[in-house]
Amino acid sequence: MGTTKLTRKEILAEDPVHGAMIQLIELLRSKGKLIGLGAAGLVLVVTGIYAGIQYLDSREGRAQQELGKAMELYHAQIDPTAPDDPYGKGPSPVFKTDTAKYQFALKAFSSIIDNFGSSKQAVVARYYVGLSQLQLGQEKEALQTLAAVGDNTKDRTVGYLAKKVLSLHYLDKGNYKGAQEILEGMLKDPQCSLPKEDLRVDLSRVYVAEGKKDQAVKVLTEGREPTGISMLQSMLMQELTKLQATSGTTPENPAQLTTRP
C-alpha cells in the first residue's frame, strides 16, 4: 500500500515527536577558579570553551540532519516502478516495497544511535527503530526496543509514545492485561504529556475487548468536559456515542453512566 508523500518540513512539523528534535543544546559551564592565570592563559580557556561549544553545535546539527533524512525514508512513497536507489527518481526517496522502505529506515536510524548515542536525537531514532522492526515483523526485537525507549528519561514524551505503541500492539495481539496496565498507568501519571482523551479512547477499546463495556463507558464519561469543543473531545464523544449505541445506554439516560463528581 502506498503512503502519502511528505516534505521534510511537514514531517518535522506533524510528527508526534518533532519536539524532541528542536531542543537547544546545554551550554558549557566553567566553574574553575582562574587564580594565577595570565592573559595568555585566559585566552586559551576562552578559546577552548568556544571550540567546545562549536563542536557540540556541529554535532547536534549533524544528528538532527541525519534524523531528518531517516524520517524521510520512514515516510517515503511506495512506487513499484522505483529504482533500487531510493533517490534515483529525485531528491525525495521512493521505494518499490514497504519492506525495502523499512529496511532502509531501520539501517539509517540504527546508524544515528551508533554515532550519536548520548543525544536526544538518538532517543527518537531508537523509537523509530522499534516502529521499523514492527513493520518488518521483528516482533521480539521491536518490543525490547520500545520497552527500552519507554524507560528512558532523556525525553519523556518519546518514552510515553513508545508505551502507547506497546499498548496498541498488546491490544492487537490479545494481551489485554498488558495493554490495560500501560494505559491506566499513563492516565494516572501526572507527568504524561500525551492527550488524555486519546488514552481514554484506547483504554475503552481494551475494556470492550475484555467484555467490560461498563468500564469502557465509565472511562470515556470521566473524560468529558462540560464545555469541551476541541477535536480531542469530539473524538472522545464520538467513541462514547458509538459505545452507548451498542451497550444499551444513551445520553438521555444518564443514570446508566458514571460521571465525575
Short description:
This protein is mainly α and 261 residues long.
Description:
The protein is mostly helical. The protein has a domain at 1-14 and 43-130. Helices cover 61% and strands 2% of the residues. It has ten helices and two strands, in the order H-H-E-E-H-H-H-H-H-H-H-H. The chain has helices spanning 8-14, 39-74, 98-115, 120-135, 139-150, 156-173, 176-188, 196-209, 213-221, 231-247; strands at residues 77-78, 94-95. Strands 1-2 form a two-stranded parallel ribbon. It is globular, with a radius of gyration of 24 Å.
Q: What pattern of helices and strands is seen along the backbone? A: HHEEHHHHHHHH
Strand order of the largest sheet: 1-2
Task: Please count the beta strands (DSSP E, at least 2 residues each).
Answer: 2
Low-confidence residue ranges: 1-53, 251-261
Largest sheet: 2 strands, parallel
The span between the termini is: 47 Å
What Rg, in angstroms, do the CA atoms define? 24 Å
**What would you call the shape?**
globular
Secondary structure class reads mainly alpha
Total helical segments: 10
* Helical residues, percent: 55-70%
Mean pLDDT: 79
Report the sheet-strand fraction. under 5%
